[in-house]
Design brief:
Layout: H1 2-9, H2 13-21, H3 25-32, H4 38-50, E1 54-59, H5 67-87, E2 93-97, H6 109-126, E3 131-133, H7 141-154, E4 159-163, H8 169-176, E5 182-186, H9 201-217, E6 221-225, H10 229-241, E7 250-254, H11 259-267, E8 271-278, H12 283-292, H13 294-307
Parallel strand pairs: 1-2, 1-8, 2-3, 3-4, 4-5, 5-6, 6-7, 7-8
């Protein structure tokens, strides 16, 4: 399978240099990451929200090696929130954050990440929106969930992400499916060992449905992170059986993937949120998008061979 190979490459400095230098890289990256600065993505936000869509914004960058870089990441999100306030888009746009970008992997990283993310959550709440904590590899999750629990004491709308391919996730979903919670369910996009995660797509898909049923039957607010037409149909049926109204759950998809489906779901009355990333440190995010969808990988590889 090519996916695990690409995920391994996402951690390789040599591969980072090679791919970043390839002339064809930028046009392909632009498909998934529409800008490097707030000014460049503001028109994208306006366009998406003008179509009846909502967005969650991710400032990409995970390889933090100093506290100063984590402060810069915090400030980048605060700048974004300031622009959203100016545009009056606080209710249509939320933020997604990776705690690694806030210094989670550094010495004393749990406390550092919490200290950095709290002002972002506070600022988001002040303009009528919220923050969702993205899930990363399994070694970071206990810290992420602890920070999530701490933030929810003052900001109960703070969301988190769970990953269907991890064995632990069904238990996490039962714990999180409480009144007021906001939980995004994704399949998972990190290279994980067989001791903690399903290795076959079919097993992950089955787990996704089991976990989604837990969330739909719970008292929280499920966010379905998938582009899979079959899983989207299953989610709609589970919502119907659970007696949920259209505004009691939402779909989330990545910018640049199945854009027509984004508009179709919104036109049917569903809440449809587009995960939109921007920034200069795009490599890790980009490589996980390639690993998730073989067609993306084959297109990129073919382009490098013919134009690189």
């Amino acid at each position: 399978m090519l996916g695990p190979v690409i995920l391994a490459a996402s951690r390789s400095d040599k591969m980072r240099r090679l791919i970043s230098a390839a002339p064809v890289t930028k046009p392909v990256v632009d498909r998934f990451i529409p800008g490097e600065t707030v000014d460049q993505v503001v028109p994208i936000i306006k366009d998406l929200t003008g179509k009846g869509l909502e967005v969650t914004m991710d400032v990409v960058g995970e390889d933090i090696t100093t506290p100063e870089q984590s402060y810069a990441a915090r400030d980048a999100y605060l700048e974004l929130i300031g622009r959203l306030e100016e545009l009056g888009l606080g209710t249509k746009a939320e933020m997604s954050v990776k705690l690694s970008m806030f210094g989670q992997a550094l010495e004393g990283g749990h406390e550092l990440a919490l200290a950095n993310v709290r002002p972002v959550v506070e600022a988001a709440a002040a303009i009528g929106t919220t923050v969702t904590l993205d899930a990363e590899d399994h070694t970071t999750l206990d810290s992420m969930f602890a920070i999530h629990e701490e933030l929810r004491k003052d900001f109960p709308q703070t969301g988190c992400v769970i990953q269907a391919y991890l064995f632990r996730t069904e238990a996490d979903a039962r714990r999180l499916a409480e009144s007021g919670s906001r939980v995004r369910l994704v399949k998972g996009a990190y290279k994980e060992p067989a001791e903690v995660a399903y290795q076959q797509k079919s097993e992950t898909d089955k787990a996704y449905v089991r976990i989604l049923r837990i969330l739909m039957e719970g008292e929280g607010y499920p966010m379905i992170g998938s582009h899979d037409p079959r899983l989207i149909s299953i989610a709609q049926e589970l919502a119907r059986k659970a007696g949920r109204k259209l505004d009691e759950y939402e779909f989330q998809m990545l910018y640049g993937i199945r854009s027509d489906e984004h508009v179709r779901l919104a036109a049917e009355g569903h809440r449809m949120r587009v995960y939109t990333a921007y920034g200069t440190d795009w490599y890790g995010y980009f490589m996980r998008r390639l690993a998730e969808k073989p067609a993306n990988l084959l297109f990129f590889a073919r382009s490098i061979l013919t134009k690189g």
